[in-house]
Amino acid sequence: MMPKGLCQEIRVEDRHSGEEMYRWACDLFPICRSLSGPGLRQTLSYLADLLPGLRVHDVPSGTAAFDWTVPDEWTIRDAYVADEDGNRIIDFRRHNLHVVGYSEPVDRWLTLDELQPHLHSLPDQPEAIPYVTSYYARRWGFCLGDDRRKALKPGRYHAVIDSTLAPGVLNYGELILEGEKETEVLLSTYVCHPSMANNELSGPVVTTAVAQWLAALPRRRHTYRIVFVPETIGSIVYLSRNLQRMKERTIAGFVVTCVGDDRTYSFLPSRRGDTLADRVARHTLARSGTDYDEYSFLDRGSDERQYCSPGADLPVASIMRSKYGTYPEYHTSLDDLSLISPAGLDGGFRILRRCLETIEANRVWEATTPCEPQLGKRGLYPTLSTRESGRQVRDMMNFLAYADGEPDLLEIAERIGIDVLDCAAIAATLERAGVMTAVDP
Amino acid sequence: MMPKGLCQEIRVEDRHSGEEMYRWACDLFPICRSLSGPGLRQTLSYLADLLPGLRVHDVPSGTAAFDWTVPDEWTIRDAYVADEDGNRIIDFRRHNLHVVGYSEPVDRWLTLDELQPHLHSLPDQPEAIPYVTSYYARRWGFCLGDDRRKALKPGRYHAVIDSTLAPGVLNYGELILEGEKETEVLLSTYVCHPSMANNELSGPVVTTAVAQWLAALPRRRHTYRIVFVPETIGSIVYLSRNLQRMKERTIAGFVVTCVGDDRTYSFLPSRRGDTLADRVARHTLARSGTDYDEYSFLDRGSDERQYCSPGADLPVASIMRSKYGTYPEYHTSLDDLSLISPAGLDGGFRILRRCLETIEANRVWEATTPCEPQLGKRGLYPTLSTRESGRQVRDMMNFLAYADGEPDLLEIAERIGIDVLDCAAIAATLERAGVMTAVDP
Amino acid sequence: MMPKGLCQEIRVEDRHSGEEMYRWACDLFPICRSLSGPGLRQTLSYLADLLPGLRVHDVPSGTAAFDWTVPDEWTIRDAYVADEDGNRIIDFRRHNLHVVGYSEPVDRWLTLDELQPHLHSLPDQPEAIPYVTSYYARRWGFCLGDDRRKALKPGRYHAVIDSTLAPGVLNYGELILEGEKETEVLLSTYVCHPSMANNELSGPVVTTAVAQWLAALPRRRHTYRIVFVPETIGSIVYLSRNLQRMKERTIAGFVVTCVGDDRTYSFLPSRRGDTLADRVARHTLARSGTDYDEYSFLDRGSDERQYCSPGADLPVASIMRSKYGTYPEYHTSLDDLSLISPAGLDGGFRILRRCLETIEANRVWEATTPCEPQLGKRGLYPTLSTRESGRQVRDMMNFLAYADGEPDLLEIAERIGIDVLDCAAIAATLERAGVMTAVDP
To answer: Does A61 touch chain B (CB under 8 A)?
Structure first.
């Protein structure tokens, strides 16, 4: 499954294993994350230990961000529904998903009929606890398996949610890895989902591994902007503070989400559909030795909604394994640590890394001589002319035929039908031979 | 068959029924129309009674119009071929088509052999009287069923055509319905065909109904230029008088022809093939709930020949039911009132009206906020986040994703896969919510 | 197989028969050509007798041409391998291909084992002598059938090559046929292959016939630059002396190679793929009444490598019969005079001639009147209007619909689905009628 032809120049020692990413996910899984609050801060703190330079920002509740306002901070301490005997028949301590996210505090006795409107379950998946939130309208509620719900007997129930909704802060993490150039590549993942694995701990842990790899590179041509945000409000807040700079500098970006299972690969293009991010992702996935599903931008559902909105219009695409919304465990308690695997996380990591290697390698080349150079005298072309010439010579001559200072490396690779990193190796060989020069700044 | 999602804002009480249009056609059918003359004037007078503001123009014979010259006016009073016993065996009084259009006067006795070169019939359709004209070369002739022709016995025949070809005028009707803007939409139909129904009384009666509908609209964004001309020379004369203004202002136009039968729908694109007229017609036909035949511009044969000629190059397409030249009754006495129907005319009317509704609705929109607006606080987005979101929300978010001040409504509707008038309703909702603004002047 | 609709205006008496071209090939076949030397000069001298005005250029060894240097001149007088009894078991006198091109002199006795590294054969084609050269690295060697090689017995062999590699000249032939305009069409063929017929005597003899045809034309709109070069180094030298002028003036060009057999037709596009040369070739081949194989530019292998290199970027395509590298006899002694035929050469000639006729005819036309002109009064349109109109009238009206001063004749012909030379005839008719004018300079 490992793609061939890796560009040796930009590879470093591979110290990131799927096992390591999986351990991080196991550590983070039990934390009850939300848009804001202690669980989110605890998660960012864990990641900051892995990523020197990661800066955790505080944004006060009530701060305006374009059309939005940062909501109150939510703290959840306990939540349960007890029967008349005091038995906790729905218990937040057993699973974070049992409480509707951002539930306001409650402490009431209700009949079953009164309780029902506050309960959420999935008749088609009776064993699954659904993931439900109510960030922007005050509500309280509980989620549970539909089997359990149907087993509830008439009677009186004690609903208790020990939570606080009060002015506080919204947090996000930001890591800037400076490169030789000001051009930027964005990686964005989200850290607001409680106790679900593919969607969404896979994104944060794979992004962390990629960021470690990027930080260790001997050189980076581009600057990397890596953000860990609560979904939607987090990316909106982030854009409201960085939009102008990001519009000027971003050449490509990826939303990293649902990259942990081992079932398939998926691609969701940017709004424009033909940006560098799209081209790199398609080339990489097409040559990864595996099939992948390509979705429409109309199927989007995460922070690319904000990054690709008309006013931002950033070149941001999504590379995934099983896309959110498409697999049965999505947004339920079934999306647990058994759904992701070291191999699944490793696949997500490798595809994303390879995309970034491609962006690093993607220069514009121009031959230094009007006709074909005489490669024979440089040991790059056979001096004995017979009927056959090798594939390698053919690829090199084809690269020369298109390296006219206009197409980037990726476009040439697509035209001549080879892997872009093999194409980068050809360019490097010809540059060393003195017959090729990079013309991008 | 009625398309869904009609934009309520621009609909008015539907007082046009297929029955009414059919009655008009019945009234007009017996009149012997031609390029010029009393029959043409009588027809225009009838339509003027239905269309307040319709102005009937006179253009003197001999007037130059680009490469053409307005021919003499033709008046036909009687025409027949009689046998030696005085029996009228071909009689203009029985069918207008029996005389070749623009026949010069004649009063001669001939043998059958001498008569034959002046007779026209269709061996493949022995019962049909063909429609034959000779506008620009002096001739005389008669048309008849091939069965009748074959039954003619040797002998002497008396050919009489009581006609006048003399300087007079060419007439056409013109109705300008002013809108809020100077941008114009052209509707053109032709009124020179004698006693044929689909081609061509359907065009004039459907155009008349559409013009009544347009005139009654509470507001029109665009100005409507509606012309009833004799075919070819009429549109050339009209263009010679209005070309500069039409080139500057016309955003779309339709030649209205063959819109009366109930067999199929047809589309013939403009010369450029991708103008607003083409896009609107294709979108409307594709969503009309019925199949349609798309022809090539190379198959053109009516006044779009002039409107789309290189020197005019107007964005004019044709929406038809059974296209001229493709159905067996075409240009014969078989194209009679039994070929068209109230339902057929109604279908033509509805498609054309919907195209005009679309043009009225087709604005360019831009979101007022860089990221997604917060629709939840405006009651347009669910505040409880569960796994499913409805089709309506999805369409609205997709509209927001493309409304960046560049594509028109129609382009966005095509991209997000919904009907353009449903898209207009979304735009109106978002405009009312204060998060969307129209940027076209 | 002869295409229909030849433009009569630009045809001249056809004095070129396949038989004549075949006789020239027979005369030239025995000469031992190479990159340089007496055989190349003898060949150019023969062609100069057929082409008044052909100028043979001398370029001294050591001359720099971009990244290349003109090599020493090679003269070969004799070459053989003899056994101990003095029997010539490999003998250059029997076939030119027995000696590796550009072999340095040798006169040595060797064991069979010592001899083997200097021998070249094709195990898959045991009867064929392969064509092998070593222009830019000093070597000596012999080529022979693999059967013969396997039959060699252990023993001592006397290898003798009586050759000279010394400073001299490289030669090429150049014929400029001036036209009314400075715009140029390039024809390039190569004259360095010894004793092979399709690749490559067919190119020189067909080019010679086409040049004779061009020279005899009563008028030429464009200037024709016709070159006979040794492959690769010859085209590079030629470009190094003429590049600026060729870049400024060349509107189309063809490498003429492998045009002598009678099996198929082939097309290899230019680097850009949509130049005038490509469009003309595709139109002509598609309407030649025969199938053809279209190759990718990635399959190139002759002087288009230089003409289409990024620094030259000339609009040069290749029209062939069986493409080099694709037929079994390629680059062996089996590519002999039995492989080509008068009919094969004639097919190559006719396709190429028709392409040049098309380029001559390919003007930009504009109607002189805004609407359709009144063709009836000029005898070009029926004055009696019945249900049918002929194909000829339809083509003429379609030509009028697109002749707006923008597309060239070829583009209009493709749009309206007729042969470009039929389209030229329509344009000429309309020009004579005064309703059409050419707008290209």
So the answer is: no
